[in-house]
């Protein structure tokens, strides 16, 4: 029967691979919400690879959300991507069981989520470099006319030799009109751009927003908005300015601070127009930092990775064409109200803010019956009649 189904199906007749025969499964390295990933030895090439096998049913359900749009499969997209900061996919196909699989370079290292949490020497030394590497990876995505739609630390690995690699192309869509229409709100709640949450038209700027949230978190170990457990809190996320990163890190290079805050603007037109535009000030800041480190101006600068010292702060440069944005006006107003944040302890163990809102409830209610919903956490306890994602790391 299976054979007949396959024979008459419209699915292209890709040769099926018996992965158990071909791969020696050395160990499980990860379980995402949509897949299982193994470290495996490929008997065909002899190399050790990452073998990702997608959950059949969940993948079908995710694909059914794009019915009629002909969304390319994760593997089809992944094999086309060639960039030093995007994990290399060698091959994709179907297992004898009909699951999609990807064979990738195996990245020995850490998840960026771990480094955000640890704030260790690696992070202190390389944070800005990693931010730029991630931006370069997104730039490649955008130049190739894709939107990643799920930029967050969980989908980023950092190798033992300090190179960042973007992984997971499960939610990637082409940057073409049919995929930009209001509708699907797939992504990870805490990193989702307001226009995506509000089901408005999207663009590549949703990746710029998620990238800025990620950069904010890399530097501060916290998300830009307070914990969001109520509708009010999510509305705040959507409508009010996030805490200015410069207030949390007064010694942070203002170019870096401004770059991130502009990436978090509420309206896409107020954000950076392209990821390259956002990368420029970050690269400039890294250059300044490298020069300072090289010249060993002060002892402390040697361990100071984002040009933190006030004495070395470059003058804030604003283009004359910079108009005050909606957020900037809001920030000015809210500054008056704000209590001091100078005593904020960056190392304090902060529970990541949670996003919970009945703004998302229709989606979540749909998710209760919709097995296409991705989550790497056990199902959430309903806290109200309108359930919403409680974990910022949950893909919806
Ligand atoms: N190339 C790789 N090298 C090493 N480990 C990897 C690789 N790809 C994935 N992993 C591991 O497997 C985990 C899950 O991978 P991935 O994010 O691609 O799966 P997913 O099911 O799409 O996840 P989710 O949708 O929940 O984000 C990663 O967090 C990572 O730990």
Report a brief summary of the structure.
The protein has helices at 2-8, 19-22, 56-64, 74-80, 112-118, 121-143, 177-180, 194-197, 205-220, 231-239, 245-248, 254-263, 275-295, 326-337, 361-369, and strands at 16-17, 23-31, 35-42, 48-54, 89-95, 100-105, 109-111, 146-147, 156-159, 164-166, 173-174. The chain is 37% helix and 13% strand. Residues 339-348 have a biased composition (Basic and acidic residues).
Structure, explained:
This is Serine/threonine-protein kinase PrkC. Residues 339-348 have a biased composition (Basic and acidic residues). It comes from Gimesia aquarii. It is an enzyme of class 2 (transferase). One of its GO terms (molecular function) is protein serine/threonine kinase activity. The chain is an alpha+beta fold and 396 residues long. The chain has two domains: 16-106, Phosphorylase Kinase, domain 1, CATH 3.30.200.20; 108-294, Transferase(Phosphotransferase) domain 1 (Transferase(Phosphotransferase), domain 1, Orthogonal Bundle). The chain is 37% helix and 13% strand. It contains 15 helices and eleven strands. The strands form three sheets. It has a six-stranded mixed β-sheet with strand order 1-5-6-4-3-2. It has a three-stranded antiparallel β-sheet with strand order 7-9-10. The chain is globular. The chain binds adenosine-5'-triphosphate.
């Amino acid at each position: 029967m299976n054979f007949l189904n396959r024979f008459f199906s419209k699915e292209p007749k890709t040769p099926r691979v018996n992965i158990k025969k071909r791969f020696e499964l050395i160990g499980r390295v990860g379980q995402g919400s949509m897949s299982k990933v193994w470290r495996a030895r490929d008997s065909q090439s002899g190399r050790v690879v990452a073998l990702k096998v997608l959950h059949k049913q969940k993948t079908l359900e995710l694909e059914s959300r794009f019915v009629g749009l002909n969304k390319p499969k994760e593997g089809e997209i992944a094999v086309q991507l060639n960039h030093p900061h995007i994990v290399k996919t060698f091959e994709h196909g179907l297992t004898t069981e009909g699951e999609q699989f990807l064979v990738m370079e195996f990245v020995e290292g850490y998840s960026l989520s771990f480094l955000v949490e640890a704030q260790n020497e690696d992070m202190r030394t390389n944070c800005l470099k990693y931010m730029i590497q991630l931006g370069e990876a997104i730039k490649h995505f955008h130049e190739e006319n894709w939107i990643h739609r799920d930029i967050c630390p969980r989908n980023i690995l950092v190798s033992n030799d300090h190179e960042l690699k973007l992984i997971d192309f499960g939610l990637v869509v082409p940057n073409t009109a049919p995929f930009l229409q209001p509708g699907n709100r797939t992504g990870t709640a805490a990193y989702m751009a307001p226009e995506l949450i509000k089901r408005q038209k999207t663009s590549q700027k949703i990746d710029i927003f998620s990238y800025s949230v990620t950069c904010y978190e890399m530097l501060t170990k916290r998300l830009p908005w307070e914990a969001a457990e109520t509708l009010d809190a999510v509305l705040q996320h959507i409508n009010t300015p996030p805490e200015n990163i410069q207030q949390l890190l007064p010694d942070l290079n203002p170019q870096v601070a401004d770059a991130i805050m502009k990436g978090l603007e509420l309206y896409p037109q107020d954000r950076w127009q392209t990821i390259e535009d956002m990368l420029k000030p970050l690269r400039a800041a890294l250059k300044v930092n490298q020069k300072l480190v090289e010249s060993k101006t002060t002892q402390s600068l040697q361990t100071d990775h984002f040009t933190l010292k006030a004495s070395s702060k470059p003058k804030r440069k604003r283009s004359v064409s910079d108009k005050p944005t909606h957020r900037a006006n809001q920030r000015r107003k809210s500054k008056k109200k704000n209590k001091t944040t100078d005593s904020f302890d960056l190392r304090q163990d902060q529970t990541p803010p949670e996003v919970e809102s009945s703004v998302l409830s229709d989606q979540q209610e749909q998710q209760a019956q919709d097995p296409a919903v991705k989550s790497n956490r056990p199902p959430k306890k309903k806290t109200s009649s309108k359930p919403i994602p409680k974990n910022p790391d949950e893909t919806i």
